[in-house]
Specification:
The chain is α+β, with helices and mostly antiparallel strands. It has one domain. It contains three helices and four strands; from the N terminus they run E-E-E-E-H-H-H. A four-stranded antiparallel beta sheet has the order 1-2-3-4, sandwiched between helices. Helix 1 crosses helix 2. The longest helix is centred in the C-terminal third of the chain and has 18 residues. The radius of gyration is 13 Å and the shape is globular.
Length: 95
């Protein structure tokens, strides 16, 4: 899994095997958390056509409606660990 786009302190877009995932930094009151969503077919098409502008808008929508129990929030611990490790590895390469 690779980080393909990011917006500092807002979101990361990751790709693995032509599947895309957006990890959005969210908050509710004093609580901060991230929401991980797999892009669906139309979202992937919009990203390919509109690029980072589409992802910025999608991240805003996710952050505005963010809840830990959001139905699209991925809760698969194995995938969450892969995403976390990918982001940490990417951050190390940026320094």
């Amino acid at each position: 899994m690779n980080v393909v786009e990011h917006s500092p302190a807002a979101w990361f877009l990751l790709e693995q095997d032509d599947e895309y995932y957006i990890d959005v930094n969210c908050s509710s009151g004093l609580v901060g958390f991230s929401v991980l969503v797999q892009l669906n077919g139309s979202e992937k098409t919009n990203y390919k056509n509109q690029g980072v502008e589409f992802i910025n808008g999608l991240a805003e929508v996710i952050a505005d409606k963010a809840e830990l129990n959001h139905p699209r929030n991925i809760k698969n611990n194995e995938l969450l660990n892969i995403v976390h490790e990918s982001i940490m590895s990417w951050k190390q390469l940026q320094t």
